Amino acid sequence: MNNKIIYIFYPSFENGGIAKILVKLTNYLLKKKFTIKLYCQNVSKRKFINSNKLSIINIKKHRQSNKSYLNKIFLTFLIAKKMFMDLLSEKKKIIIISMQDHIISLIVKIFLKKKIIIRNSEEINGATKYADNKILAKIILIIKKILYQFADTIIVNSTRSQNSMKSIINNKDRVKLIFNPYIEKVLPQFKKKKINKEFSIISAGRLTKQKNFEILIKAIKDLRKDGFLINLNIIGSGPKKQKLYQMSKNMDYIKFTKWTKNLKTFFNNANLFVLTSLYEGSPNILLDVINNNVPVLSSDCSGVKDILKGNNKFIFKINDLNQLKKKIIYIILNYEDVIKKSIINKRNIKKFTIKNLKLYLREINFLYEKKN
């Protein structure tokens, strides 16, 4: 009988890639008979398998703030406080898995001397370089350089994230590369997509600075002026919505669609998916796109070369407008060849399946067996 206990810290449950991996990991550990306490907000037990070994500690939003990020910080501290008090009274051996806000969870670990695994979902150097508030980002990086030394295991999800993390960690053996356990089933190989009157491009994600949709809008505008019949659909919502709408005003070939969980219809009608992010950890959206047989073009952000290994023709320099336009033109003019080369991408994504959950289990069991 497995009596191992896991506390998972994920204070702000958002419907993104991290949340999907959290659900998969939690359900996997429940099937392995772990007892799990999940500390978060705004999550329903319906997302998880039915198990009496799962407890969800939800913190209600009972204080409002004019600035949402202040409210988020306040709620995060409330959740951390609750986890701290529960750990304080817990006599059994506990492993903490931190999926978010690692600085706070590491402080809890230091005070209570518990074992902790942190899953770092972004490439820290890129996130610092392109942050909205660079001074604050540099301060946070300094704090991370100090506190991350206390992590027992740091899981990263891309080769570049691994190198970035090892640059700030003294004990580099604690940094473990595990590709995202994201894909449940690899779909059948490519079927040729026909180009209709206009070349159809889609992109998707939060409308934020990180995703850098501005450069894609500029590229499509310029290419239309050069005579290329292209339409663009950006799927998502976020704080930069109004600015992006204003940028594409009077451009009927650029469309915005509210985020939806089911992107199948968009994939079926698209000739190309373009990712323009300034930084990522490992972009799960590319895995969805490739699995649904859509050719991709991506900025050279973290994780992309792990996914598009050997296909540099589908990668452009971050924030390089001219190179982005040249790559789109190349894809349009050589589309049949692009389809053939996209099959290589399909083969690469097999290393991002849910089989990687076994590697998480290995790290958890290693810490349980470790005496100090």
Describe this structure in words.
- This protein is α/β, with parallel strands linked by helices.
- It folds into 2 domains: 5-182 and 353-369, 3-Layer(aba) Sandwich (Rossmann fold), CATH 3.40.50.2000; 199-352, 3-Layer(aba) Sandwich (Rossmann fold).
- The chain is 41% helix and 16% strand.
- The chain has a 7-stranded parallel β-sheet, with helices on both faces.
- Strand 9, helix 8 (241-247) and strand 10 form a beta-alpha-beta unit.
- Helix 2 packs parallel to helix 3 (102-112) and helix 7 (213-225) packs across helix 12.
- 38% of the residues are buried.
- Mean pLDDT is 90; it is low at 62-66.
How does the helix and strand content classify structurally? alpha/beta
The CATH architecture category of the largest domain equals 3-Layer(aba) Sandwich
Radius of gyration equals: 22 Å
First-last Cα distance: 23 Å
Strand content: 15-25%
DSSP E strands, number: 13
Oligomer: single chain
- Helix/strand order, N-terminal first: EHEEHEHEHHEHEEHEHEHEHEHEHHH
Give the overall form: globular
Percent helix among the residues? 40-55%
Unreliable stretches, pLDDT < 50, 5 or more residues?
62-66
Total DSSP helices: 14
For the largest beta-sheet, the strand count, sense and barrel status come to: 7 strands, parallel
Quick tags:
13 strands; alpha/beta; six-stranded parallel β-sheet; globular; 14 helices; single chain; Rossmann fold; 372 residues
Task: Sum this structure up briefly.
The chain has 372 residues and is of the alpha/beta class.
